[in-house]
Amino acid sequence: MKSRRDRHAVLGAALASAVVAAGTAGMAYALTAPAPAARPVSSSSAATPSLPAAGEGTVEPVVTESAIDYDALLGEAMADVPVGERARVSVAVLDLASGDGAVYGGGTAFDTASIVKVDILAALLLQAQDAGRELTATEKSQATAMIEYSDNASASALWEVIGGAEGLDAANERFGLTGTRGGADGSWGLTQTTSADQITLLEQVFGNDSLLDSEARAYVRGLMGGIAAGQHWGVSAVADGTAWELKNGWLPRTATGLWDINSIGRVTVDGREFLVAALSDGNVSQKTGITLVEAAAQAAVSVFAGSAAG
Residue 294, Cβ neighbours under 10 Å: how many? Predict the structure, then answer.
């Protein structure tokens, strides 16, 4: 399995040229085409050595390298996903077994809304580890309410505990997130992130190459598996039954009336585990945004799981 740094590099690869509509002004977001797939390479083209006296020739084997362009496959799958006229969407996926991943629209930043609550908890646990302490009873109660019920007051309280945006950014730098910045003036829901960064964060929770110890990772996973019934949507739509852990975020924007809808988590499909992050904004309603991120998650997993994702 590739290292976390290698897998993050895969997720950071850009897509085949794609444009996602966005903004009230009709602004387009162009994505860079990926590097072409590796071509087969042969052994050295040097002159063939002379035959030995016995007349037996020395034959050098031909070495071939093959690579699947998962970004391109995801781009093709996303071509079938309807995106609203004013909406933008980005999705990233990682196959935990192989370490292979794909990203669509990975260079585009989105407001996190409530998916940042996983990041807040991860930062809190990292700080607690550094201090050699356990979470307090109050912090545990707030963490449960923040993740399982998406309680905003609990998120605000823990945001202050970790040191706000500065504390979040410091933890994320250690986690390896490169495109995430904490929201200013206490506005944790306006933290900016990318789908690729969210996969990197999920690796801290669900991977073994993590700064968080096994107890901390199990704690976050447990909360993400206990999401309140009314929030069972998003990436969980791809999973087999209840084989998922997730956190969703939704935010109506007062200036435009449009919705930010995001979903991150781990799903199990036909026995295979995937980390998925689907981010969107500019949705005309919460319902259409949910439909969009679920379709994007299905497209992402289909790249690796084929028809199992549908």
Answer: 20
Give the C-alpha separation, 36 to 225, whole Å: 39
Contact 129, 162 (CB under 8 A): no
- Supply the angle between the helices 4-12 and 195-206 in degrees, to the nearest 10: 160
Q: Is 245 helix (H, G, I), strand (E, B) or coil?
A: strand
Per-residue confidence (pLDDT) for residue 247, from 0 to 100: 98
Residue 117: name the closest of 153, 82, 93 by CA: 153
Backbone angles phi and psi of 52, in degrees to 5: -70, 165
* Predicted local distance difference test score (pLDDT) of residue 67: 84
Secondary structure of residue 123 in the 3-state scheme: helix
3-state SS assignment for residue 87: coil
Q: State the pLDDT at residue 2.
A: 42
Look-up of token digits 């996602």: 20
pTM of the shown model: 0.79
Q: Which residues of the chain have pLDDT under 50?
A: 1-5, 7-58, 63-66, 307-310
Contacting residues for 130 by C-beta, under 8 A, at least 6 apart: none
